[in-house]
Amino acid sequence: MATPVQGSRQSPEEVPFGSVLAVSVRARRERAGLSQGELAKLAGLSAGTLSVVEAGTGNPTVSTLLALSKVLGCDVTDLLRDATDPMIRLLRHSDPAPPGGSISKSRLLHQFAPNGPVEFYEAELPAGSRNASSPHAPGVYEHIWLARGTLTTGPEGAVERLEPGDYFCFQGWVPHSYEAGPDGATFLSALSYTRSLWATRELLGHKP
């Protein structure tokens, strides 16, 4: 194995297995809103075992990887890949997008494979009103498509101002808000859940 030049970016083959796993598990755990203790309990692992995994040391067994992947709602192979969040998406009405089918002027807003329940809501906010939302259950993504008016929405510190036709998907397990413009706002809101986290939400005391 070649020794990377100091200051250069390591190729995937040169990145230590433990480091990739550590970053992936930690990122997925934090994305799901779980503490180390909660994840260890749900996976049937000791706190020490999980601590070693997230530190990038030791040599976790296959059973440990299987237990973690089951709770985190992914395959074992996913734990060894980049843990950036591909679900977060902002698509403006004016942005180019693939056509969505044979219907005239249709376009694809987002494509993903839900592995849990999806709930759809039609929502309307009066002009100038603001609604602060508590975090949803861990692993819940919120999808907003604005039909009328203007809407400023998203997680605290990362809100976006939406115009009619804009689509925004964000992590719903952090505090977020909705604020209508001077003409009010009518929008579609969908909540997509991870099956494994949906099944354990009551155990952890989280509500959608």
Automatic annotation (TrEMBL):
Q: Superkingdom, according to UniProt? A: Bacteria
Supply the Gene3D superfamilies for this chain.
Jelly Rolls, lambda repressor-like DNA-binding domains
UniProt keyword list? DNA-binding
Q: GO CC terms for this protein?
A: cytosol
A molecular function (GO) held by this record is: DNA-binding transcription factor activity
HTH cro/C1-type domain: from which residue to which, for each copy?
25-79
SMART domains named in the record: HTH_XRE
Which protein is depicted?
Transcriptional regulator with XRE-family HTH domain
